[in-house]
Design a protein that fits this description.
By secondary structure, this protein is α/β, with parallel strands linked by helices. It is built from 15 helices and 16 strands. A hairpin with a 2-residue loop joins strand 5 and strand 6. The chain is globular. This is FAD-dependent oxidoreductase.
Length: 448
């Protein structure tokens, strides 16, 4: 049986599910296809032995910083429970000279130091003021006036401690970006939009909470890989070993390289942008502990930037993110690699990754290896968009493309490396797809 639907959405991460939710709310029939067995994409949460393990994204800021995300939180009723999206206390610290320096990324840190000298802190304020006056738009980073500048260029004439201890490690640890490769526009726009780390929140029941809430009201088919989408006069053929079908339109809510593979006949403006969108791979190892360890100086802290380590970029104390993440008396940490180490370890056996990262974490969490009860390694070859200047240059033609039967959603469409970039892209994809459906014929009848 070949069933015609209005829209096929490929990918059940936040971008795909949000797109499907918006189109379904507008009265269209939508089917979501996901190649793996669970929804969430890079916001999946594993549930193991009473532990909630966030495999990718870790937190969200306030509604001012992430308006699209919070619009869906309200639409799904998650905001009805005031404890469903709690604040993360002491969200970000910096490891410097043998201890965690708290309050990084928030105004209080300008007083307490964050491991920066007074001159470096003053220069950080100057940079923040400059970015605030620049009118940066995270949905249009190519308009920020930074042209072909990289993150390294942005920081080159600033106090060296900003690049060495704070902003450089932030780009490397959270986004997987080498400073010399990543365009400054998306980085600066994201920092300006995200605001203080004092507003960081998490989902009490796992970072896949919103994805699961959206999926509950949708036609989602997991374990359903898609091998190609082919537009034609009768709609879009969605090809899959699990069963092909036709749809009036399709939205590819997958990483740009996957979208290029699934839609090789894309028009030139789309194809050029898809090819220009590169990704930084991400690798993290999560360790289940028999006790809630903490680095010196941040007993309650969550995320710790590690500026001067050859392997480690970030250490997160996931048990400090929310007490429901672990059984009472247990601990949960994640170790995230620096860009220079990710490539070398990406294809290494899990035991080699465990050994290398735990050895590097020893000086931060003394004796950690003896407390490990189990580990999980998370590999994302397509971790986060790596916005090179070439992608910024190709983006205006991509955003100006005409309506068509195949559209796109994902953080890469705006080069915004976060879940808000993915969710915000869904509003654009849903609007464009609905407009395309409005100017085309009615759905094809069901054929037996």
């Amino acid at each position: 049986m070949v069933t015609a639907v209005d829209v096929a959405v490929v990918g059940a991460g936040p971008a795909g599910l949000a797109t499907a939710h918006l189109l379904t709310a507008a009265g269209h029939t939508v089917r979501v296809l996901e190649s793996v067995h669970a929804v969430g994409g890079r916001m999946r949460t594993l549930r193991t032995d009473g532990h909630l393990i966030d495999t990718g994204a870790e937190m969200i800021p306030s509604a001012d910083a992430y308006p699209a995300t919070w619009r869906l939180i309200r639409a799904t009723g998650l905001d009805a429970d005031p404890e469903a999206v709690p604040l993360v206390r002491d969200a970000l610290s910096v490891w410097w000279k043998g201890r965690a320096r708290r309050h990084a990324g928030r105004p209080l840190g300008l007083l307490t130091g964050m491991g920066l000298s007074p001159r470096a802190r003053l220069d950080l304020v100057r940079l923040q003021l400059r970015l605030g006056r620049a009118g940066l738009d995270p949905e249009h980073p190519e308009r920020g006036g930074l042209d072909e500048a990289t993150v390294a260029d942005l920081l080159r004439h600033r106090h060296p401690q900003l690049g060495e201890r704070l902003l450089g490690p932030l780009a490397a640890g959270f986004f997987g970006w080498p400073q010399e490769a990543a365009a400054a526009g998306p980085f600066a726009a994201h920092l300006a939009a995200s605001g203080s780390t004092a507003t960081w929140r998490t989902y009490r029941d796992g970072m896949d909470t919103l994805a699961r809430a959206l999926a509950a009201g949708l036609d989602v088919r997991t374990d359903h890989p898609v091998t190609g989408v082919v537009p034609g006069p009768d709609g879009v053929l969605v090809d899959s070993p699990a069963g092909a079908f036709t749809a009036r339109a399709a939205v590819l809510a997958v990483p740009a390289p996957e979208a290029a593979r699934l839609h090789p006949a894309a028009p030139p403006a789309e194809r050029d942008y898809l090819r220009a969108c590169e990704y930084a791979p991400m690798l993290r190892m999560t360790a289940l502990l028999d006790a809630p360890l903490a680095p010196r100086g941040a007993r309650r802290g969550f995320a710790l930037l590690v500026p001067d380590d050859p392997l480690l970029g970030v250490v997160t104390m996931d048990h400090a993110k929310h007490p429901g993440r672990v059984p009472r008396g247990r601990g949960l940490i994640s170790l995230v690699t620096r860009p220079e180490a990710t490539g070398a370890l990406m294809d290494a056996p899990d035991e080699d990754v465990d050994r290398a990262l735990l050895a590097r974490a020893e000086h931060i969490l003394p004796g950690v290896d003896a407390h490990v009860r189990g580990t999980v390694v998370h590999r994302f070859p397509h971790g986060l968009p790596l916005p090179r200047p070439a992608a910024l240059a190709a983006r205006p033609a991509f955003t100006a493309r005409p309506l068509s039967a195949v559209d796109y959603a994902g953080d890469w469409t705006s080069l915004r490396p976060c879940s808000e970039g993915a969710v915000a892209s869904a509003f654009t994809a849903a609007e464009r797809t609905a407009a395309y459906l409005a100017q085309t014929r009615e759905p094809t009848p069901i054929e037996a």
